[in-house]
Amino acid sequence: MAIKVSVKTVRGPLAAKVKEVSGQDPNVCFQCGLCAGSCPMTGEMEIFTRKVMHLLQLGLADVVIAQKMAYLCASCHTCQVRCPRGIDIPAVVEALRLLTLRHGENYLAPESIPAERVREMPQAAMVAGLRKFTA
Amino acid sequence: MKIGYYPGCTLKSRAKNLEDSALASLAALGFEVEELPRWNCCGAVFSLANDDLIHHLAPVRDLIRAKDAGHERLITLCSMCYNTLARANLLMKHDEEKRKTLNLFMEEESDYFGEVEVLHVLDFLRRELGWEKLRAAVKRPLEGLRVAPYYGCTLLRPREVAIESPDLPVMFADFLRALGATPVEFPEATACCSSYQIIANESAALEASAKILRAATASSADALAMSCPVCEYNLGRRQGDVRSKHEGVGELPTFYFTQLLAIALGLPQETLGLKWNEASSLELLKKKSYLTVSA
Amino acid sequence: MSQAPESLTAKLIPIYIMGKRYEVPETLTIMKAIEHAGYKFIRGCGCRGGICGACGTVYRRPGDYRIHVGLACQTVVEPEMVLTQIPFYPANRASYDYATMEAVGAAVGALYPELFRCVACNACTKVCPMDVEVMDYIAAVKRGDLAEAMRLSFDCIQCGLCASRCMGELPQYHIAQLVRRLYGGKLAPATDHVDAMVKKIADGYYQQKIDELKKMSVDELKKLYTAREQEPHQAPELWKAKSAEGL
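The joint structure predicted for all components is written out below.
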């Protein structure tokens, strides 16, 4: 992945927004990778949480939100309880999702879920999923 | 005094087996619980964004209902409800600014300051009864039953609402031991089953479930015990889909921990709600001759 | 001396209809005030009796940030109120095959998956002109308790104001209507006397009378209609028709 880093990207508004919405500072991350190693959902992620933190340090939130990664987080908080720097990583990932969701773009349209799945699904999964994936 | 009980939506439908077996067991153990007279869906997940207060309304409203009904303690069975309610409660207790805004917004409700204590039933049993007393109450020990205790995420993480240390939990195993079962250690006991990801990213979700089921299969457990309806959906109901796509996953009956409790307490079969379990669960119980038909 | 109509003698007060100031008699309902101001209703006006739900109106009072609601035909104007009608709301309305539909919460959720987007903000209940506990009936549907949702939503008049305020974009009133239909047709206990009457009618109990009516002229029909026995207003509970003909 080719990236372009400059003072402009590092001080850009998107990464600042992620910081504000998540209440977390990705700059304290020292890149140990324990988070990515703990993540149960890496199977289909193009980039893992460690790299996400690094990209955010460089101000490249737009690079991160172009990936599917933020929508693969299950908010299981395994990374969060293990992070030696005390970063609430799921909160950072939630903020990344909200960058697009808050503009009214659904990641998952409720009506696209097959009716027979909705019928058998525990309500908790429907409620949680629509909270994470709909605008 | 009766203890407040928050069921959650899933326990009134697809996870009726979790509710029925739990309520019967609690009654048999002498605890009086009372469902909140009025409640709404808790929201299932706690909002993680710093500036998103609207998604805290649902759990806080339920906590207000508990307080208004005169309850000091509120017990939950569904892990996700527990997590959401417990975290919302901490927020209302400790975050003065957000508490003020939320209370102001809900002008039609009484003000709330985090007064109610939110407890998951597993933790409640440990505190209020203790495993020795539970062992003494067991009428039909689950001898020879190898059960893999699956905690999942929401009972253990984040740390501030963990029912015990998220690094090395023992409560579930102790509980199973008290029932006379043999708890089986397996490395994925606290791993995530993918939770709500099943509705959006199915293949990634089934892969996460496969890791857990594979580890449990390798530990030669007879069954998997859990307390979350979404885990049960991913690991039980969708087990066939996992197996068809991933190797090394054996057929593993799943139970809610309260179903095993009800069996061990000698409660009749109709309190177990087995029609909501997969067929393999019923078969295992028949094979072990654990089922009691009421007189 | 004949008395002037109330609308001519009543004090005039200013109100704002869609932002424009009008002076209207203070005794009028919002609906009559809108007509007094010169508007003509083609839609957004139905029974004029507070039942049909066609004239949902939102308004604000000066110095108050809150949005208040009322049915235009039932709410009397207040000085300086700023109002607009929301006679219709383009809320999602699912189509379904009633005959094959199972009367369970999961089936309702499958038709309206947005149900699970409710955040319990309570804006729906606050806006309801019929004081229906909208948030609570949505909670009941979510957990699959159709009987409770039916009970709680029974006074709904389908005005749609709940949907207009919903941040989850739920069509609460359409969901509730489906629930009541499912409850009424598939869950409510059958009543023997209704079943017996339906069978009686199906077996041709009224056929002869209908045939007779079909042969009548318009004048004969009018005469018959005018002469029919009607239940008087505020009739005692045990009122009975003098003749059992046609019953």
